[in-house]
């Protein structure tokens, strides 16, 4: 039996946060420093994964989760590795055509 244990994302996903902002009366955008903080954390997560030759293959706002770490912006966690794979390449070339990373190598 396989058990997957995950951290609870108390603030939901980035997709949910965007939808909440769109429903709000004033539709105020996220603070620039908040978005920068999220992108820095997400970039660090992707850099770490790629250094281990892991490709996520389903990166989208619904798979980026926000947790409450005591800061105003929260902490970003990358989730849903259901279709991720370990890259057979030892080094990542500067450009990989998107069709080479899609399931069954179908053109995107």
Helix percent reads 25-40%
Number of helical runs? Answer: 2
Question: What is the fourth-level CATH superfamily?
Answer: Transferase(Phosphotransferase) domain 1
Principal-axes shape call: globular
**Count of spatially separate domains:** 1
Strand percentage: 5-15%
Query: What top-tier CATH class fits best?
Result: Mainly Alpha
| pLDDT averaged over residues | 77
The total strand number stands at 4
What's the quick description here?
This protein is of the alpha+beta class. Helices cover 28% and strands 11% of the residues.
Describe the protein's architecture and organization.
This protein has one domain: Transferase(Phosphotransferase), domain 1 (Orthogonal Bundle), CATH 1.10.510.10. It has 108 residues and is an alpha+beta fold. It is 28% helix and 11% strand. The strands form two sheets. The chain has a two-stranded antiparallel sheet. A two-stranded antiparallel ribbon has the order 2-3. The longest helix is centred in the middle third of the chain and has 20 residues. It contains two helices and four strands. The chain starts with 13 loop residues before the first helix and ends in a 22-residue tail after the last strand.
Secondary-structure topology with pairs:
Blueprint: H1 14-23, H2 32-51, E1 54-55, E2 64-67, E3 75-78, E4 85-86
Antiparallel strand pairs: 1-4, 2-3
Features:
single chain, Transferase(Phosphotransferase), domain 1, 108 residues, alpha+beta
